[in-house]
Amino acid sequence: MVFHSGHLSRQEALNILNLPDEALPELIDAAYAVRKKYKGNVVNIQLLTNARSGDCTQNCAYCAQSRASQAGIPKYNLVSYEKLLQDGYTVREKKLARHCIGLSGIRFSDQEIDEFANYIKGLKRETQTHICCSIGFLTPGQAEKLKAAGVNRINHNLNTSRNFYPAICTTHTYEERIANIKMLQGMGFEICCGGIVGLGESKTDVVDMLIAIQAIHPQSVPVNFLIPIEGTALANADTSHLSAEYCLKVLCLARLLNPKADIRCAGGREIYLKGKEKWLFAVVDSIFASGYLTAGGQNIEDAVKIVTEAGFQYTIEPA
Ligand code: SF4
Q: What family classification does the UniProt entry report for this protein (predicted)?
């Protein structure tokens, strides 16, 4: 079978997710050719700081920080500057590619943004790292302040398809997410935009989400595989279909649709793709180390080890 990259029809994309597992090596070869052409053999490792945790007003079904969640997570309004700086130094010293900073919540007061922008200014001055923030819906004025403070990239995920969105969240809409991304992109931010697989969506929803992400032309596409968290609405979600083979097909599709973007295997990597690193890194060029917003993960040393043992290199990206 011949696989091409760039524009794929909805049916062609769906055919990839429906491939028999025996066809996976051929699909991975095709994804690797694209990855090698645009990304070489480098894997970016990124660190994630949860700068504001819990007490969100929104009801995203997968999220431990949502108002509907009973998960026993730490809750704080803003992490200490010292902790943020400590993470920034780790990013610099371990030669990681980027410092990702997530804040729970969907809207922020100007005062909160001013305080956070001051943190970012200090962090940028001290560490000179590439900074990406995941920070809800911003007003243009708030976004300008963060840009001036040194934020390079904004993460705002679509999470799933337009059709399936109301099944995972009813407190804001998919369209609001698209509008926020477009506004930020128009202001010159790099965009990181991805989603979560395993929420109860169909394969067509995964295809629709990835095609919608492609239309945004993001610099980075994080693909998460659901980690069901106790206390959330999806605590008992059936993830039995998230075989390594299925996850790899999703990642190959993300790579073929977005040849030049960073394709990141984010949450769930350590669970669903453990032991499959040679295949994984043939497709993706980016991972997180040291855990996710509210879930633990592999430490930096082990992440570096699996990258190098799989025959790939990790390296710093200039800010
Ligand atoms: S995903 Fe974001 S917006 Fe949704 S509940 Fe969690 S913190 Fe709030």
A: Belongs to the radical SAM superfamily. Biotin synthase family.
